[in-house]
Input
Amino acid sequence: MGLPHERYLRPRLWVALLLGVPVLVLAMGAMLAPAFFHRFDPQVLAWTQLVLTTPIFFWAGAPLNRRWWYSIRKRDTNMFTLIVTGTGAAYAFSVAAVLFGDRLPPALRTDHGVPLYFEAVAFITAIVLMGQILEQRAHARTDAAIRGLMDLAPRTAHRIGANGEEEDVPVEAVHPGDLLRVRPGESLPVDGVMAEGRSEVNESMLTGEPVPVAKAPGDPVSAGTLNTTGAFTFRAERVGRDTLLAQIVRLVEEAQNSEAPIARLADRVSSWFVPAVATIAVITFLAWWLVGPEPRFLHALLNAVAVLIIACPCALGLATPVSLVTGIGRGAQAGVLVKDAAALERLAAADTLLIDKTGTLTVGSPRVVKLAPADALSADEVLGLAAAAEAASEHPLARAIVAAARERGLAIVPATGFRAEPGMGVQATVAGRRVVVGRASDAVGFAAPTAGAPTTLVAVEVDGRLAGRIELADTIKPTTAQAIRELQRLGLRVVMVTGDRDETARAVARELGLDGHHAGVTPARKQELVRAHRARGEQVVFAGDGLNDAPALAAADVGIAMGTGTDVAMASAGLVLVRGDLAALVRAVHLSRATLRNIKQNLFWAFAYNFAGLPVAAGVLYPFFGILLSPMLASIAMSISSITVVANALRLRHARL
Output
């Protein structure tokens, strides 16, 4: 049975809180301030609680009651079976006490009448609704991820007709074989093959690599990728649902929809605890009816109801939500944004970490790592001239060169005659000198980068002479190596998954001491790798930052996105590392294990109180000591169990991560 939308649950939570707080005050007031509350007529207080609690149970708790009925009808007991059975028994008993309190046996009355349990009904309903809202928010991330993916492709395309005229048409009207034009700064509407022109296309959505790829006639191009420089025409090949972008959307949808619901510990325990409580209640009723004192039927009914009331899981309703909410708050302090509370539970059991390279292990953008002057000019002069020539370019390598010059405090002289050739480099006149900046592999006298080295070499020519070489690299983040070692110490096998070359991937894996790597991987292949590891029985965490990581993030047991990454990646993930720092992933693992341990402790205490009270509620002590369960003692025991659970959960605020 699916979750109701948060818009449906939120007003019910507010009603439960607004009406439940006065009920709690009236119920506990006699114990906290007896002199004040004993001045009021007990019947007036009782009827007030009844009037306030009735809409909470029937209206605010309607989605919980429907789940209870669904579990009964399908014979699939879970936490909702136990909760609504308990709250229903507490509500029914309290209503009977208000209406017929003077007819109940003296053993069930105190000096102030028959105790009521309306506050338990209101309190539990509000807490469970809060937990459902947290869970429903996690499910809402599916739509956000898919919308973000679909928005990458433009709504219209520039189609060139048979007469050579260009017209704008909806992307749905494009057919295979159509000739389309793409201008600088535009995204491609469909997949195809370049026909005329040259350009550099940002394919980071597919590969995760920040440097645009040079494209020439005959090269394939994909929908959703960004044309960065020159205009070109291409012939459409795959359109609509056949494009690579549409396939990525389907992968995310399938992964989100096929994700199995978590077998929650509370549901597993409830699956046998509910039948056990129901059996004890039936046995109690029959025993008192057959051999109990007169009036037998009334004693049998009341003691059977007492069994259900003492089993009412007030603490159980708090056990998981309070720990998760506290853990989420602690995670936020440590730079870990928990979007899916259940991800904390799954992360604690993880044993395999598949991790993207660019933007996750590395900074995610090229930086100048070395300057090698080859003429009479100094390194700073070479960098300053290159930065001046590149200042007007939007290319990632150009921005890195300009940023390096600014970091060194170099003045960037205005350039004239700027001209960029896609895939070749730029030319400009700087202070009367002709400066050409291009890939070193295309420049005379400079060899291409050494195989396996994760660098890009740029040559700088001044007035026709080679002036120097600039090496750029997507450097590994300073905290990455230590974080990887700590994750391995915690028992995780760390494997890199990247769209980069095998030589580069091998060099990074060797430097960081990773347990393995996969190179040249597409978005679909990343998701296949996640599923392959899960099929081997591994609990898989995937960490990435790019759009190309979205399908894998959605398919993993736990998806973790870098806060510095794309919106789609963050929408597909269960956890977000706010500063994009892998040290926060280490803290997330510690947090998940502490939270799961805390939940298990809470569930133990919640059920321990129930088990201790059930025999007394059933009347086991009555034949020997004449003792029936005092409703007041039952109420105190329920309060103590709730306080114990809350106090234990709050310890997470000070957990060392």
